[in-house]
Input
Amino acid sequence: MHYEGNVIRPPSEAYSILLQATVGCSHNKCTFCGAYKGERFKIKHDDIIMEDIHFASNHCRKQKRLFICDGDALIIPQKRLLNILMEIEKQLPWVNRVGVYANTKSLKMKSIEELIELRKHGLGIAYMGLETGDDETLKAINKGADSERMIEMGQKAKQAGIKLSVTVLLGIAGRENSEKHAKETGRILSAIDPDYVGALSLMLIPGTPLFNEYEAGTFPILEPIETLRELRTMIDHTNLSNGLFHANHASNYLPIRAHLPHDKYSTLALIDEAISGNIALKPEYLRAL
Output
């Protein structure tokens, strides 16, 4: 496989075939993210992508899922992306789901009809980084969209029949705006009603603008208990029709896996136990991105 730079995939795609069709991220301006710094976004040539699909057809016969990397493969023009999916269908018929990262920009560029067409040819899930539902924080971290655009584009993916996994970041609003961030994020998640929510805890990356703010003393890092209180408030304000809310990423202090609405109150009670000190939290040295 022809991999370039940092190849990043969602935790749930750990056992998927990783097909790198783009390098980097088309936005690449978020203040907290250092994943693609120094990399210029590009779409790979079709012949390289097709060669990698052919490689997978010979060497990746046990994997049932495929993830198209990197940070924003959905931005590939419709005809080219459709050709990639059709080639995957042809050469890897055992693959039963294809996933991509998506942002509001790439979702806006695709019509509902185009998204449905992609879904019919295997695109089963899109991963969208919301990070926060608080417009003030979205602007501060240079996310490139406000909360209403997040709702609109998230609902668009859902309307096309594509499963949607939304990522949020605990601690991204700092201490002063923590409660507002938690409540507004719950509100936006409820409006989108994604199939999955993944809550990660902020870990600062040296060289990023947000790390520089921390070094300058203008951005505080939440203590573990403060992070749990933020998570509790967020879940309390999140109403999903039938979704999985998980906070079991390596960055989190307390592993959470809750089916909402069924597990909502038992999960809140679990977090209360942890806040009270009755459940041990993950030590700092075991946390990772």
About this structure: The mean pLDDT is 95.
